[in-house]
Design a protein that fits this description.
mainly alpha, 0% strand
Length: 373
């Protein structure tokens, strides 16, 4: 029974389990002491917790689904519908993160296309939505966990961060739009809209969450201390909806914590520290992209940040590195699982399409990065 539970946990939370094993193994080489307390970036952990619970609150109100319905009601053709959905994923991910965007809009897309009888056209759209969420999220410090972490520890200004990501986000948007415009177009009746009762008192119910989001943004841009935001978020959520504490991805938080321990210990082993410094420094772009293909871009960001001061290039690298393999960005697994649940016999077709689109855009963006950096 215990072995079965452990196997299920490893399958569901592979990166978390790997991070735990690495932290435990490194603790055998470096005995736990008071320096362990200096390893974690508590600001990143606090912000990640706050943003996850705020977004969970907005999601529980149906805010994102209503937004999608409102935009979809304006689409008059299959191409227009696809364009709205992909752009929705691209721009939503800048605020609510790439994984929440895909959790929200991929099932919604599958539902809408089933309703309009166009299930045969949804595969490429889900792939493009996944690309849009991963690429759009790179544009802001809160768009994905690796940006939140690297922006926190790097000390980069907002302008420096923008220079590291916006050229690629802009080019990505053009590539996505071009990919949609070459798709076959068909006239389309508007999809059904939600019951109007869903919006009753919605603005008033959103106020606490929007206020907390503004507070967190002030912390992200180093206007307020993170401790203040953490206390406010915990207090307000306890009053508004305690159930939201159960919707936080604690596995992600502990994944960060275990990687902090692993990297902190690596830096205290002189031989390994010197080797990793020589491999990473001066090769941040390639190291970030390649590492992301194997361990995904969030762990890659945490790992490589301990061995370079060139954070601008590293931010670019791990964001571009989210393209490529299915595990390069863990958010991509969300889209795959949603599609596979709806079309279990088409997993292989999805993976082939996903791989072609991802590596195609990755090659274009990487070539541009080698020119610009």
């Amino acid at each position: 029974m215990l072995w079965t539970k452990m196997k299920d946990l490893f399958q569901r939370e592979t990166v978390f389990c790997v991070s735990f094993i690495l932290a435990l193994a490194s603790a055998l080489a470096v005995r736990p002491d008071s320096l362990y307390l200096t390893y974690p970036d508590y600001r990143t952990l606090a912000l990640l917790f706050c943003l996850m619970i705020i977004v969970a609150g907005l999601q529980s109100l149906g805010v994102f689904r209503l937004l999608g319905q409102s935009l979809l009601s304006r689409a008059g053709s299959l191409r227009g519908l696809s364009l709205v959905l992909v752009l929705l994923c691209f721009f939503s991910s800048m605020v609510i993160t790439n994984d929440v965007t895909l959790i929200t809009f991929v099932p919604f897309t599958l539902l809408v296309f089933r309703m309009i009888g166009k299930g045969d056209r949804v595969l490429t759209l889900v792939v493009l939505e996944t690309l849009a969420a991963n690429l759009g999220s790179m544009a802001t410090p809160i768009g994905n966990p690796q940006n939140l972490y690297l922006f926190s520890v790097s000390g980069l200004s907002a302008g420096e961060f923008a220079l590291a990501v916006l050229p690629y986000a802009g080019l990505s948007l053009l590539l996505l739009v071009a990919a949609l415009l070459i798709q076959k177009n068909e006239p389309l009746a508007p999809p059904p809209v939600e019951d109007a009762s869903m919006v009753e008192n919605l603005p008033r119910r959103m106020v606490p969450f929007l206020g907390l989001l503004a507070l967190c943004l002030l912390v992200v841009f180093r206007v307020l201390p993170y401790q203040l935001a953490l206390v406010c978020v915990i207090g307000v959520i306890a009053l508004v909806d305690r159930r939201l504490f159960g919707r936080v991805d604690y596995y992600l938080l502990f994944t960060f914590l275990f990687f902090f321990i692993f990297i902190g210990n690596l830096k205290r082993v002189p031989g390994l520290n010197s080797l990793l410094l020589s491999l990473v420094q001066g090769h941040e772009l390639l190291a970030g992209i390649l590492a992301s293909q194997v361990i995904s871009n969030v762990p890659a960001a945490i790992l490589l940040s301990g061995f370079t001061q060139n954070f601008s290039t590293l931010i670019t690298a791990v964001n571009l590195g989210g393209l490529g393999t299915l595990i390069a960005s863990l958010a991509s697994l969300i889209a795959f699982k949603s599609y596979a649940a709806e079309y279990p016999t088409r997993k292989g077709v999805f993976l082939r399409s996903f791989t072609v689109w991802n590596f195609g855009i990755l090659l274009v963006l990487t070539a541009v990065a080698f020119i610009l950096i």
